[in-house]
Write a structure and sequence with these properties.
alpha/beta, two-stranded antiparallel sheet, 9 strands, 38% helix, globular
Length: 371
């Protein structure tokens, strides 16, 4: 009988912590299998991940919150794969976080400085919230401006994870006329690898998945042109949306309470920004994989894209690329279907070309009625 290979558990590693908490090898492998699926990795990677994570030392993490609403923290506390408890107690050492830490005042700042000293060049820095540049007094922590605290803490970090649209793009604080002079993390830090995890807020398991990837592989995942992990932001919500067949057929809800809406038809005419929004909402979903905004009956507002807050009304359609299909259906179902397919393929190829050149698809690039 072939013996099962056991992972060597070293002192001070994640494996040691798991063993102390009574987590079995089988349970941990099951967890790594779900984590591999979350990261879009082949099933065979589960055992590789289990080996790597077990031998890795708990990752020191410092989390800074600047101009934000605490929504990103609220979101990550609802992660289910891995849970926040799994992360904190088993995989990372969350050494500083305004909202979650017990310490306050001088004790809190001492914890941050001590972690920076003890883990020089090795700690992971997470930032949520934009940084005000108009006046340091707009946002100050322990008498230190957000800018100065970011620069100071970033110096010894191995990498930076900007979570939420405020940290990645400037967010709501940066909306016109940007009264605080808000900027993103990447506008200030130029000499460190930065992983952007946008969303208002980001999906919980996307945030924890990025942390798990860093712990497993000791580096940042493959990123797109905007610094976002491709495993989560490589496709648009529209590409994976369960309402997509209705879009291709030219079937749209006209109001949020009409028969078409109740039948699950496409919400494009009601302002859904899914076709130009890159995120994993349609596949990963929220609340333990229960649902996402479009499944709940509301169109995507594009919150993981730059400047979504200044991109026009949430309930105004981007364009009407398949409205020609709808207009022609009354005269000829076959002709209308053919037109719909032609326009759909035009839009798909337009998006594919834009993706290949790392450009954003604009409204005017999509086929319109009468074009």
């Amino acid at each position: 009988m072939k013996k099962t290979q056991k992972t060597e558990i070293l002192p001070g590693t994640v494996g040691e912590g798991l063993a102390q908490r009574g987590v079995t090898r089988r349970e941990f492998l099951q967890y790594c299998t779900s984590l591999a699926a979350l990261l879009a990795l082949p099933p065979a990677m589960a055992s590789v991940m289990a080996e790597a994570i077990s031998k890795a030392r708990r990752q020191s993490v410092i989390w800074l919150s600047f101009q934000e609403c605490t929504g990103c923290t609220e979101s990550i506390t609802r992660s289910h794969s891995p849970t926040l408890e799994n992360l904190i107690f088993d995989m990372i050492s969350l050494d500083y976080h305004h909202t979650l830490q017990a310490a306050s005042g001088e004790a809190a700042e001492h914890a941050r400085l001590q972690s920076m000293k003890d883990n020089e060049g090795k700690y992971l820095l997470i930032v949520d919230g934009s940084i005000p540049m108009g006046n340091p007094g707009y946002s100050v922590i322990a008498g230190i401006s957000n800018h100065d605290m970011l620069v100071e803490t970033a110096k010894g970090a191995a990498a930076i994870v900007a979570v939420g649209t405020c940290a990645t793009y400037g967010g709501i604080p940066m909306a016109d006329p940007n009264p605080t002079g808000a900027v993103s993390v990447s506008d200030i830090v130029k000499d460190k690898p930065i992983i952007n995890v946008p969303g208002c807020p980001p999906i919980p398991v996307v945030m924890t998945g990025v942390l798990a990837h860093f712990l497993t592989f000791g580096g940042i995942p493959e990123l797109d042109a905007l610094g976002r992990p491709k495993s989560f932001y490589g496709e648009t919500i529209h590409d994976r949306c369960y309402r997509r067949p209705f879009y291709d057929q030219g079937k749209f809800a006209e109001t949020f309470d009409d028969e078409a809406a109740r039948n699950g038809w496409c919400l494009f005419k009601l302002g859904c920004k899914g076709p130009v929004t890159h995120n994993a909402c349609a596949t990963t979903k929220w609340n333990d994989g229960t649902s996402f905004p479009i499944e709940s009956g509301h169109g995507c507002i594009g919150c993981s894209e730059p400047k979504f807050w200044d991109a026009g009304p949430f309930y105004k359609a981007l364009s009407m690329p398949v409205s020609a299909t709808t207009a022609m259906l009354g005269a000829s179902v076959a002709a209308g279907a053919a037109a719909g397919v032609a326009i759909t393929w035009h839009n798909r190829s337009t998006k594919a070309a834009a993706k290949a050149s790392h450009e954003t698809v604009m409204v005017q690039d999509l086929a319109r009625e009468g074009k």
